[in-house]
Structure prediction request, 240 residues.
Amino acid sequence: MNLRDRMEWLLRMSLLVFILGAAAFLSAVTAIRFAIRGSEVELPSVVGKSASDAKALLASKQLEMRITDRVFSELPANAVMQQSPPAGEEMKTGQDVRVVLSLGPQTISVPSLSGESLHAAQIQMIQAGLQLGELSTCYLPGLPADQVVGQDPPAGNRAAAPRVDLLISAGDPPAAYVMPELVGLNEVDADRVLGSSALHPAQINYAPASQAPSGSVVQQVPAAGTRIEADVAVTLTVAQ
Prediction:
């Protein structure tokens, strides 16, 4: 085989290797894309189906069902009211589909809870087949602490869910004071000023301070003029 024939043979072999390599690469890409697409399924609609039927349908698609809430509705009890994501979306197998189940039609009238203590309100809700929902508190001067001052849904209404949100009085707001200026006073005078303001130092730190007389306050926390409550910790730094 002369040199020219050898070169032509090498060129043909190189071309053949390139074609085989390209084919193998395309096959690998196709297989990977098929594997990825093969792990995705189209989410079916389960709204209106019973919980057991919905779970079985999702299981047939290799999806899991997770119940996130139960609310009253005109649908039969344990029927799926909502699903997330919505039907038609592509999901990877093994993922959760979140559903809200129906408790059936609401037949319970919400009792009046305003004016009751929180404990008494909870007892009434249990007796009515309801549950405590979100609990909020606020300071209300003149009202005792732990008294119900608001509710949602209002008394006499029928709730969309078996929960009643309550607003509870926290009683009178705590006394507030304005932090006095203590920097420059000696430790004894600073303690006296705090005492006259119904405050007291929670911590006193001692540190070298060449520009201040020994025993004088060189730093305070909170700063002077700050509005604080009586139980706020006051920290003083005193020059050694």
In short: The chain has a mean pLDDT of 87.
